[in-house]
Design a protein that fits this description.
This protein is α/β, with parallel strands linked by helices. It is built from 14 helices and 15 strands. The strands form 2 sheets. It has a 9-stranded mixed β-sheet, sandwiched between helices. It is elongated and about 80 Å long. The chain starts with a helix and ends with a helix.
Length: 420
């Protein structure tokens, strides 16, 4: 007897026994009894596994459940009901177990989205929801995918690794001076925008930098849907030692009830922040982040861009979505002044995540003037990427003066000016 046939018989039995949805413990008890009574499994281990799979079908997320529970899985992509691909934390993609039918796939994805109160149907065929544990679900279906595909779904575990300075250096993301420069620059009032594609390590780097904000300064963070940052520090008596507020969006099908990153940033400006972190700038919140950085706050954010220079064009394009009539040259000038330091990260062919460039920018003579501070020069891009880190130029006296006014240690001042 196939699993689909066993499932059908079990569901029919449960429907006869219960007139409404039973409690999880009660359901498990009856499923185990039914499996045992009908000798669907030959051994106790097989019986346990079968019951687990049946329960996942009836109250969990079917074939997706094992992947959602595994720490070594980073992404689950459902290309169609019978094609599921799994990507692990090392960047390796392999085929996964697929659904039983198109109807089965749609039912399970609906169940996933209901966890964040999202209705997914023909009138709302594109939905983005979240599960506990920082898991983002993007689902498209119905008329906008092939009829025989049923759906296309991207499930991404958004978990920033808790890496130390030594981890970044050992993993060859950067060298000692690069990580020290970014940490000390932000600590001492310089706003930073980290650019790169999805999975390039932007949020992991941002999380490290945030953990070094002085404990006597007020840090406020804003994130879309799920919370990746965990910056609250407690001592051995469980007393909170720093000054942190974490905020996240609350989206609704009714726009009136949605609380966006833009709204949270607007509210945040009345909450006396010293440091502000925006998980990702990808909409109207970019303008609020630029305004915050231009009014004396240290702001750090990430965005999707293909280079340090492209970061500014990306920020301007995001602002123009909300303010189409605003002068582009003025927006560019505001963006450069807001984020004088940009970082470009990339996941390379060998799945290593590297900082390829750190740049400083100024706006003069009606154009962006980029100054490369550090770069990773690729010499061989093969199964193992080979190259070297180069310090191109020193940070400007203008930014050094800003950091000095905010109390940077002389040791770091001397280090960042060395060999220039």
């Amino acid at each position: 007897m196939t699993f689909a046939e066993i499932l059908e018989k079990t569901q029919a039995y449960i429907s006869q026994v219960f007139s409404s949805e039973p409690e999880p413990e009660m359901l498990e008890s009856y499923v185990r009894h039914f499996v045992k009574q009908n000798h669907f499994a030959n051994a106790s281990e097989e019986e346990d596994l079968l019951c687990e799979e049946l329960l996942d079908e009836m109250q969990g997320f079917s074939v997706l459940s094992p992947y959602l529970k595994r720490d070594d899985i980073e992404e689950i992509n459902v290309n169609r009901w019978d094609d599921v691909k799994i990507t692990d934390t090392n960047g390796i993609t392999l085929p996964g177990k697929h659904f039983l039918s198109p109807h089965h796939a749609v039912d399970i994805i609906k169940r996933l989205l209901l966890q964040s109160n999202m209705v997914w149907d023909n009138s709302q065929c594109i939905q983005v929801g979240h599960l506990t544990g920082n898991i983002r679900v993007t689902a498209v279906g119905f008329d906008i995918v092939d009829e025989d595909a049923a759906c296309a779904v991207s499930i991404r575990k958004i978990t920033a690794s808790n890496l130390s300075r030594e981890d970044f250096i050992a993993g060859k993301t950067c060298n000692e001076e690069m990580i020290d420069f970014l940490r000390e620059a932000y600590k001492n009032g310089v706003s930073i925008c980290i650019a790169g594609s999805a999975g390039s390590g932007k949020t992991t780097l941002l999380s490290y930098i945030l953990k070094h904000v002085p404990t006597d300064k007020r840090l406020l963070t804003v994130e879309q849907g799920t919370r990746e940052f965990d910056c609250v520090y407690r001592d051995h008596d469980n007393t909170i030692k720093n000054n942190v507020v974490h905020l996240q969006t609350r989206l609704s099908d009714n726009e009136k009830y949605s609380i966006t990153q833009e709204k949270l940033l607007e509210t945040m400006m009345t909450m006396n922040p010293d440091f502000i972190a925006v998980g990702e700038s990808k909409g109207a919140e970019a303008m609020q982040a630029i305004n915050a950085a231009n009014t004396g706050h240290a702001v750090i954010t990430t965005t999707h861009a293909n280079s340090c220079e492209d970061t500014y064009f990306r920020l301007v394009s995001l602002c123009k979505m909300k303010y189409p009539n605003m002068d582009e040259a003025l927006l560019t000038q505001l963006a450069v002044r807001a984020f004088p330091i940009t970082v470009y990260m990339k996941k390379l062919k060998d799945n290593s995540r590297r900082i390829l460039k750190i740049c400083e920018a100024e706006y003069a003579d009606d154009q962006i003037q980029m100054k490369e501070l550090y770069r990773f020069q690729i010499e061989k891009n093969a199964e193992t990427v080979q190259g070297f880190i180069q310090k191109s130029r020193c940070v400007s006296n203008r930014l050094l003066q800003q950091m000095m006014e905010n109390g940077i240690d002389k040791h770091w001042m001397d280090l960042f000016q060395k060999e220039c």
